[in-house]
Design brief:
Largest sheet: none
Order of helices and strands: HHHHHHHHHHHHHH
Radius of gyration: 22 Å
Structural class: mainly alpha
Number of helices: 14
Length: about 325
């Protein structure tokens, strides 16, 4: 082999090594946000059986107020410098996102008082259908056929997991409205969060959520748990399933497109069923297995299928 040929071959090998070394961290960067969002969703799912017991001690609105107040204080104490770094535009974005989430929480809570938990779980999960619609209409995102297929699979799975009959009522209407707001929140979070502002954005959001929930709850006085077990559950849901969860969701959505995030988050009822079976004394049913299989299959379609195309364009960060 000539010297020129050896040089060309060495360059080719070096290029392949360089491409491989760049691809490995790229795949890792793609996997970490998915794992983070799965952890967030697991924390959400773990609260269902805890909330059921806690609400025997305090009202739903009091629970929201105290939970998010603790979460807000924790985040603001831990990350004040990240909040100080936010620009005015980022602060406005955080306030809008916090209001969306806070109003959604209150509407969902009011709806829960008027309808069954199973129906509310299905209707809330409709954000997985609404998210790509809002992304397409409001932000002109192009949603591919594969994503729509995954959305349908997720909705089907949610139906198997939680739906045992559905009638239109005021409670269903309130929960549906909250699902639409959750969808807008997911879209907005995907557009406004970046790796640099995620921590500060999460802290300000949580403060706004806490203020809004406290304003709604305050007129009738705010109660607190009267047992140590109740306080332990509340602290877990405030620090882990609220503060750290919103921080993780905000960071993850700085790297994931909104529709992908919504599909991943439909794992919440799957985790809720799992924790209910393991710790809540509920029995495993065929509906749980079928519904969970549909949701997992939807995640496979958008996250793990080896021949998938890029599902959505890179997110465009907007200003308010």
């Amino acid at each position: 082999m000539t010297g020129q040929g050896c040089t060309i071959e060495r360059r080719s090998i070096a290029a392949e090594v360089r491409n491989y070394s760049e691809a490995v961290p790229a795949r890792r960067v793609s996997v970490l946000p998915t794992l983070a969002l799965l952890a967030v969703t697991a924390s959400f799912g773990s609260t269902f059986f805890l909330i059921k017991d806690l609400l025997r001690q305090i009202s739903v609105l009091d629970f929201l107020s105290v939970r998010f107040a603790i979460a807000a204080v924790a985040l603001l104490v831990m990350v004040p410098k990240y909040v100080a770094r936010l620009s005015r535009s980022e602060l406005r974005s955080a306030v809008v996102l916090g209001l969306l989430y806070g109003v959604a929480q209150v509407l969902q809570t009011l709806g829960l008082q008027r309808t069954s938990a199973s129906v509310s779980g299905f209707v809330t999960g409709m954000y997985v259908v609404a998210t790509p619609i809002f992304a397409a209409i409001l932000l002109r995102d192009r949603i591919g056929k594969v994503v729509w297929f995954a959305v349908v699979m997720s909705a089907t799975g949610l139906g198997f997991l939680s739906l045992h009959g559905l009638s239109i009522s005021l409670g269903v209407g309130l929960i549906f409205a909250s699902a639409m707001l959750y969808a807008v929140h997911i879209v907005g979070l995907g557009r406004w969060s970046t790796p640099d502002n995620a921590v500060g954005l999460a802290a300000v959001q949580m403060a706004v959520i806490a203020i809004f929930c406290t304003i709604v709850s305050a007129p009738n006085g705010i109660g607190v748990p009267h047992t140590s077990g109740g306080w332990l559950s509340l602290l877990y849901m405030a620090l882990v399933a609220a503060a750290l969860a919103l921080l993780g969701q905000t960071w993850a959505q700085a790297h994931l497109a909104p529709t992908r995030a919504a599909i991943i988050m439909t794992m919440e009822p799957v985790f809720a069923a799992l924790f209910a079976v393991l710790f809540g004394g509920e029995s495993l049913t065929g509906r749980m297995l079928i519904g969970g299989s549909f949701v997992l299959a939807a995640m496979y379609v958008v996250e793990l299928a080896p021949r998938r195309r890029r599902l959505e364009a890179e997110t465009t960060h907007l200003t308010v």
